[in-house]
Q: What sequence folds into this?
């Protein structure tokens, strides 16, 4: 079964920044971007590939209206793993829970009291997500 990894948290807690760190981490680990709009907007979507396995990323997730078309696009691109941001409750959770052929793992966004600690936590959260992506892709080998 395919996997959605949802970085869950309130608005303005670093979810998009964490997913941007993840994008850079994946590129430095041999993934290539085959589609997307990274770098053109604050929030982005991207399809990355390595060894013929596709991973989709979207930093959009604060509303159902923003998230649904991106999830549909990443599913259409045949991504085995999708990483997205989502809110702690409500319609974005319902949307993710109703994706046939995917199961959902939630990662709670780490929130720190200072800006420097938050920056470190964003990167640590990105590393944790990357570890889960690698684990899932290894299962699919």
A:
């Amino acid at each position: 079964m395919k996997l959605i990894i949802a970085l869950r948290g309130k608005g303005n807690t670093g979810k998009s920044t964490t997913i941007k760190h993840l994008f850079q981490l994946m590129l430095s680990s041999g993934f290539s971007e085959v589609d997307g709009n990274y770098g053109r907007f604050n929030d982005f979507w991207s399809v990355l590939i390595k060894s013929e396995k596709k991973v989709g990323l979207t930093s959009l997730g604060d509303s159902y209206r923003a998230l649904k078309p991106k999830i549909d696009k990443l599913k259409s691109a045949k991504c085995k793993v999708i990483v997205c941001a989502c809110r702690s409750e409500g319609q974005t959770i319902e949307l993710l829970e109703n994706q046939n052929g995917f199961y959902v793992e939630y990662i709670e966004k780490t929130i720190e009291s200072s800006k420097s600690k938050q920056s470190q936590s964003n990167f640590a959260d990105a590393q944790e997500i990357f570890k889960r992506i690698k684990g899932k892709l290894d299962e699919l080998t």
